[in-house]
Amino acid sequence: MLNNHNLVNQEYTEILFERKPAKDFEGNEIEGLYNAWISLNNPLQYNSYTTDAVKEIVLAFREASNDRSVVAIVFTAVGDKAFCTGGNTKEYAEYYAGNPQEYKQYMRLFNDMVSAILMSDKPVINRVNGMRIGGGQEIGMACDFSIAQDMARFGQAGPKHGSAPDGGSTDFLHLFVGVELAMFSCTVCDPWSAHEAHRHGLLTEIVPALKVDGEFVNNPLVRTDRWISKKTGEIIYGMPKKGESLAKAKQLVKSGEMDLSLLDAAVEKICTKLMMTFPNCLSKTINSIRKKKLEHWDKNKESNRDWLALNMMTEAKAGFKAFNDGPRGNREVDFVKLRQMLAKGMEWNDKMHKAISPKV
Question: Where do the domains of the chain lie, and which CATH numbers do they carry?
Answer without folding.
Answer: 15-209+259-313 (3.90.226.10), 215-257 (no CATH), 326-356 (no CATH)
